[in-house]
């Protein structure tokens, strides 16, 4: 049920700077209002009031509107014209397409001496015999009825046969009130039956009760399968039954009464709410799976950004370049680097990528370019390739003795390969390495033949032993 609230009235008073105490015109149409209230206290200076196309069943709480000139109550559920005696300035009253069956209630408008226009088109009372004559005779100051001007001759004829017309109208009115009472009883029974039907349909969507006879553990699996099958069937039946009920609701003939109008309105309202809920469910996206149940990380690019993932072999790092929007604030970016994947949140949208190798999250860095706005993640790998470095070779020292001390063995570097050495006195083969005792330096030329000079002997030398050497100068 919709009530008239101060916020509703103030929202319709924008043309009056949202002031309601001095408001002269307000439109509250198509608001599903079911009761008139508060307006006579909040808007005392009101002159024009639009309340058409609502669910108002009774005219009330308008007697304090002394300045009201035009009241529009078309397309409502009003059955009796009443409670308008206080509207002293009322000039026009519109009750088009209501349920005014008590035509004698028109006589209550005799107190509104300024009333000149009245609309009752679409009401049950307009079908009464002598309807127009009765209204014209009851309201002598009325100038227009249902948009048709009342001529002087018509007014004279209506006043001449007013007694007979009044008698016929009252008989038809009593018949209508009896029929209306039966319609109300039928509507009440129908509403009670629908409530019982709703209660009976609660156990199952198709209106049947289901009993679980498989109480043993052995029948639980079969019972679950049966329940799933029944649920699928029930969903199909519910869809079919809903379409069938919708068709029956609109194609079943019924009398045009305030109850049927309210029922149609309730039906449309429920359908609209169900449609809105369906739209909300569609709008609510299912949460994206970033890591599966078995621990497998998935690649995700919700912001739909361009990126590049490269490996720097020289620095043993993995570089991720994400093309973030250039003018976006850095506070809207959240970076989370894990050993096997990197996750970046850009304005609430997740970008996640699996890395080709395990990295060190603590040593990773995130930088943003000041020119392009790109986000660059530099992530060092945990285990990189071992680089071969050339170590300085040391000359091997030949052991002069057969034994080495243990201290020298400990000084050996583990990276230098150990070679087995043999005592040189044990060699049996010819040692070709020691054939030449003196190595030629880079400055010397080819090796020259040298002559061995025998050691000097004591005593005089004979002439036979003397050999003249041309290279040796003679002694003087």
Molecular structure report:
- With 476 residues, the chain is an alpha/beta fold.
- The chain contains 8 helices and 15 strands.
- The protein has helices spanning 6-11, 39-42, 131-138, 152-160, 162-200, 220-251, 258-283, 406-411, and strands at 25-27, 48-50, 70-72, 92-94, 117-119, 144-145, 148-149, 300-301, 307-312, 317-322, 333-337, 341-346, 349-354, 365-368, 375-380.
- The strands form 3 sheets. A 7-stranded mixed beta sheet has the order 1-2-3-4-5-6-7, with helices on one face.
- Strand 1 (25-27), helix 2 (39-42) and strand 2 (48-50) form a beta-alpha-beta unit.
- The longest helix has 39 residues, at 162-200.
- It is rod-shaped.
- The protein starts with 5 loop residues before the first helix and ends in a 65-residue tail after the last helix.
- The model is unreliable at 203-218, 385-405 and 440-445 (pLDDT under 50).
Low-confidence stretches: 203-218, 385-405, 440-445
Q: What general outline do the C-alpha atoms trace?
A: rod-shaped
Largest sheet: 7 strands, mixed
Radius of gyration: 56 Å
- Residue share in helix: 25-40%
Give the strand content.
Answer: 5-15%
Supply the helix-strand structural class. Answer: alpha/beta
- CA(first)-CA(last) distance: 154 Å
Instruction: Give the helices and strands as they follow along the chain.
Output: HEHEEEEHEEHHHHEEEEEEEEH
Strand order of the biggest β-sheet:
1-2-3-4-5-6-7
User: Average pLDDT across residues?
Assistant: 79
Topology overview:
Layout: H1 6-11, E1 25-27, H2 39-42, E2 48-50, E3 70-72, E4 92-94, E5 117-119, H3 131-138, E6 144-145, E7 148-149, H4 152-160, H5 162-200, H6 220-251, H7 258-283, E8 300-301, E9 307-312, E10 317-322, E11 333-337, E12 341-346, E13 349-354, E14 365-368, E15 375-380, H8 406-411
Helix pairs in contact: 3-4, 3-5
């Amino acid at each position: 049920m919709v009530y008239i609230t101060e916020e509703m009235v103030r929202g319709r008073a924008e043309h009056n700077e949202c002031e309601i105490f001095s408001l002269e015109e307000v439109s509250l149409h198509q608001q599903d209002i079911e009761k008139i209230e508060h307006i006579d206290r909040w808007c005392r200076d009101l002159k024009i009031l639009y309340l058409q196309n609502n669910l108002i069943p009774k005219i009330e709480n308008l007697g304090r509107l002394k300045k009201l000139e035009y009241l529009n109550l078309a397309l409502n559920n009003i059955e009796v014209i009443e409670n308008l005696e206080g509207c002293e300035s009322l000039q026009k009253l519109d009750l088009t397409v209501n349920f005014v069956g008590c035509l004698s209630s028109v006589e209550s408008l005799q107190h509104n001496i300024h009333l000149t226009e009245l609309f009752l088109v679409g009401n049950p009372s307009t079908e009464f015999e002598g309807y127009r004559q009765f209204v014209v005779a009851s309201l002598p100051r009325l100038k227009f009825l249902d948009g048709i001007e009342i001529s002087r001759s018509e007014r004279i004829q209506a006043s001449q046969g007013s007694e007979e017309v009044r008698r016929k109208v009252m008989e038809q009115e009593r018949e209508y009130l009896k029929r209306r009472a039966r319609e109300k009883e039928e509507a009440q029974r129908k509403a009670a039956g629908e409530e019982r039907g709703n209660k009976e349909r609660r156990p199952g969507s198709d209106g049947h009760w289901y009993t679980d006879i498989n109480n043993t553990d052995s029948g639980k699996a079969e019972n679950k399968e049966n329940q799933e099958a029944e649920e699928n069937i029930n969903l199909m039946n519910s869809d079919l039954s809903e379409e069938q009920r919708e068709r029956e609701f609109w194609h079943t003939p019924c009398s045009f009464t305030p109850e049927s109008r309210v029922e149609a309105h309730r039906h449309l309202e429920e359908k609209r709410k169900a449609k809105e809920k369906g739209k909300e469910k569609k709008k609510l996206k299912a949460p994206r799976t970033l890591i599966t149940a078995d621990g497998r990380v998935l690649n995700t690019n919700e912001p739909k950004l361009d990126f590049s993932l490269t490996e720097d072999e020289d620095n043993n790092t993995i570089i991720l370049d994400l093309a973030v929007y250039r003018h976006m604030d850095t506070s809207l970016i959240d970076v989370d680097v894990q050993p096997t994947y990197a996750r970046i949140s850009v304005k609430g949208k997740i970008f996640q990528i699996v890395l080709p190798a395990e990295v060190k999250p603590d040593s990773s860095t995130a930088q943003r370019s000041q020119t392009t706005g790109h986000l660059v993640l530099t992530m060092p790998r945990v285990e990189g390739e071992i680089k071969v470095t050339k170590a300085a070779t040391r000359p091997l020292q030949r052991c002069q003795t057969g034994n080495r001390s243990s201290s020298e063995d400990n000084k050996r570097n583990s990276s230098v390969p150990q070679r087995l050495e043999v005592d040189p006195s044990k060699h049996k083969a010819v040692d070709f390495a020691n054939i030449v005792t003196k190595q030629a330096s880079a400055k010397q030329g080819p090796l020259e033949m040298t002559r061995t000079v025998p050691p000097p002997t004591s005593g005089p030398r004979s002439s036979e032993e003397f050999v003249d050497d041309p290279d040796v100068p003679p002694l003087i």
